[in-house]
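Dear support,

I submitted the protein below through the web form. The confirmation email said the job was done, but the results page showed an empty box. After a refresh the structure appeared. I'm attaching both so you can tell me whether what I see now is the final result or a partial one.
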Amino acid sequence: MSALLYLDVVVLVVAAPIMLLIGVPAAGYLVGAGAWIALRAVGVVVDRAAGAADDPRREASLRLAYLLGRLFLLAIAVIIVRNGSGRDSGLTALLVVVFAFTTQLVLSVLNRPRSR
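What the results page shows now:
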């Protein structure tokens, strides 16, 4: 079940050679996927720290700071790759991030605790 939690990362890594072979801009794909994977790793650390927090306000603050920081950093990554490598690379990075976010969102809904 824990492998399903990281399906978004697995799909990005497995799809990388295929996408690069069909001709998507390499800079866009690699920056989008790299930023997503790095921020998912940071998210695991933040989630553990928030889970260990005794104060509910601290837990909420950590989670909110991570969510807003992740959004900001992903947007910066897309802007940087667009300015550095062109419009197509920026669009590719944006599509990679949107796909990974959507996958993670669906998985989080499927894996949420059920109440009876």
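Response: this is the final, complete result; the empty box was a page-load delay. The chain has a mean pLDDT of 89.
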